[in-house]
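Step 1: inspect the first sequence and its tokens.
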Amino acid sequence: MKKREVIFLTVALILGAVVGGLLGELIGSFLPDGAVKTLFTQSIDIGFKNFSAEFYALSFTLGFMVKINFVSVLLIIFVIVYFRWWYI
């Protein structure tokens, strides 16, 4: 696999997760209450919350959190299938 393909796949997966999260929240906001709305709006948080260390003149904060919902997973699968079809 070429470096260009790895960069494309990484960027496409990140964009797929972000756009999928936004689309899932947007679609879920228009749906009536029920199981389908829960499917689109419920997300899983993966990562760790902010960690802060404060010294006299320095402050250090580290944190990383990813929210994954149903549409994010669908778009990530779509990106993987597209990549396999186009590049392999």
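Step 2: inspect the second sequence and its tokens, then contrast the two.
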Amino acid sequence: MTYHNNILLDVFSGDEISRPPVWIMRQAGRILPGYKRIRSAVSGFKELVKSPDLIAEATVEPLEVLGVDAAILFSDILVIPEAMGVDYDIIEKTGPVFDNPIRSVGQIDHLRKGEEVLPKLDYVFQSIEVTREVIAHRNPLIGFAGAPWTLFAYMIEGSGSKTFSRARKFLYEEPDAAHRLMDAITESLIAYLKEKINRGCDVIQLFDSWAEMLTEAQYKQFCIPYISRIFEELPEVPKIFFPKGAWSSISHFKGMAFDALSIDWKTPVTYVREQLGANQIIQGNIDPALLYARPMEIESAVHEHIRLTGRNLIVNLGHGVYPNTNREHVKVLVDAVKEYRY
């Protein structure tokens, strides 16, 4: 499909573009007034995630307030564990907490997987359809999911963690069971993402938020085969992979079936270019803390980032927007990209 603002899709198709596209991770939930109003109108985060009309409103607001080049469907990566049978809640100032985390190998064989999860996720698919109607032909829509290891880590740990030591322990003590769980998560993600594409998502991003917790050898053993399978089995839409902090594994990504590699602010773009070549589309790498700087410094740093990275770039942060970020400074970043010319 062609949109009034098609620049994000143009970078994937290799079309000549005058500037890079820009969108911002966590571009809705942390800094925008419309989201804060929506959030205060519901009992909790999970009620919001399961309300298609509110999801559409939260998804579209960044297009109108920030002027970014794409919308990303407001959702949560933990909808997959919940659909598989591992329930969670979001506790204010604590984060995700699971009611029944996996504590035994036997629990794995009783999980729903693959297409069995789809009826439990119908609210997500309804949200896509409502959002598509609101966006109309303005901008492409990104759909996302958590990568197998990141979801595995939450399902085993039972909450967020600074170390995910319980999940990592499981890899050492129960490697066969770990692979079974990774496989079940992978089957569920493939079914989920295929349906997201069927319902109208133009681009898919896979977040491996806790990739940095694993050694290079572990990432190669427990992650890359499943991530590769996901990208290989999805339809031909642009695919973005964000393995946060997994710089040591970048050489192993060569030849994988994603289109853009999203990198955190501590991974140099020059290193990625050395490993994967000039034709690799890179997304991200801007330090979220840059948005605390003065507007002129933000603009200068963004232009330097584009010059350093060159073409085949999607401008984004190396992580999500921090909660106390000045919204006007985010707009400065977006405007700096939009005024740049190669």
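Step 3: confirm your contrast with the notes below.
The chain has a mean pLDDT of 95. The longest strand covers residues 141-146.
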